Amino acid sequence: MKKRVGVVDQGIRIIAAIAAVVVSLVIGTSTAWGIVLLVLAMLLLITGLSGFCPVYSALKIDTVSETKESGKGNRVVH
Hints:
By secondary structure, the protein is mainly alpha-helical. Helix content is 59%, strand content 0%.
């Protein structure tokens, strides 16, 4: 599995996961929305910590390479 999630993207995912957990606790973890938010938080946390996102792989999105410059100054997408 190739890492496709950049550092900034990882940080955003982790912060969003924490926010989703907090909102879930506020509205109640036993409600439908609370459960949906907890599942979303889990997915965001896993992809944020691992640096791998299956959706990014399927769509061939690579936020790791955005910071790297190729010889022509274009974004490198694999």
